[in-house]
Amino acid sequence: MNDFVLNDSETDVDSDEELQEAFAKGILKPGLNEEIEKTVKTYVNNVAELKAKLKEIELKLPWIEKLDLITTVAPMAPDVALQIEETAQRRKNVKENSKGNQKYDPTQDPILNEFKRENLIHRQAQAAVIDGIKRLKDLNVPTRRPDDFFAEMAKSDEHMQKVRKNLMAKQAAQARTEKVRQLREQKKIAKKVQIDTKLKQAAEKKHMLEQLKRVRKGKSTDLDFLEDNKGKGNNKANSKDPRAKVSKKRAMKDKKFGFGGKKKGSKLNTRDSTNQMDDFNSSAKKKPFNFKTKNFKPNNKKNQRPGKSKRRNAKR
């Protein structure tokens, strides 16, 4: 069986070199090699048929079913006109100051034109609303919802209760988190204040010991720092600090023994005490003596318990 050999000269397929030469000469054009016949499409503006088709598909419904409006723009409010003028003047100042002597053309300003366009849309909608409400009132169509109107909710009450509980839980969690954060911040501040106070006390103590050491060594004779420390101690004792309260034992001892000074002869009579007769009353009755308590104060106890014999007779 002989092999089939394809002769290049006999084939219809062009080689790459031939294709490149044809493309260079302009014979070969981009795209498909086969030319496609072009069909020219003619557009006919048949106005009569278009109007007939429009009349065929047009729905003759009342205006209340369509609610279509064709209106002009509403008159511009004075404050809006003033705002547009101020914006134009401000844009003019910015443009002329930033670009030298270039004249400002408000029609070429995109920002001002955008502002005017939005204003025109607003005025168009305003005019449509005014005309539409007037037509609805002429047709006796209510435009306001009555006060006692009952609208059915889109979701059930149970679902809304779940939503409310979820929101309340979130608010409570946020409040709890905020409270914990505040407590943490307060603890940090209190700890910092405590550390600062201890450091200050340590520094004052170190400074006092250094001064005391200088005095002992004879390098200084100033003892004013001791007076300052005494003054601080007195101020602390006189302050309204609850820790500065004096115990009852200390108060009784201070009352009995005093605070130092001369005690001998303190109870002797003097001229002033002898002449003072305010507390003396000879007509006063003698106070009864209580042998149990060993004092002269009368025992005015009420609702005393009766004796054993009286209680025994009371049971009979």
TrEMBL record:
Keyword set, alphabetical order: Coiled coil, Nucleus, Ribosome biogenesis
Keyword Nucleus included in the entry's annotation: yes
Polar residues compositional bias, start-end: 271-283
Signal peptide: none
This protein's record includes keyword Coiled coil: yes
One GO term describing the cellular component: nucleolus
Main location: nucleus
Chain coiled-coil ranges: 33-60
InterPro entries: Ebp2 (IPR008610)
Region described as Disordered: spans on this chain: 223-316
Places the protein is found: Nucleus, Nucleolus
Pfam families linked: Ebp2
GO biological process: ribosomal large subunit biogenesis; rRNA processing
Compositionally biased spans, kind Basic residues: 299-316
Family membership: Belongs to the EBP2 family.
Function of the protein: Required for the processing of the 27S pre-rRNA.
Protein's name according to its UniProt entry: Putative rRNA-processing protein EBP2-like
Species the sequence originates in: Papilio machaon
Lineage, opening ranks: Eukaryota, Metazoa, Ecdysozoa, Arthropoda, Hexapoda
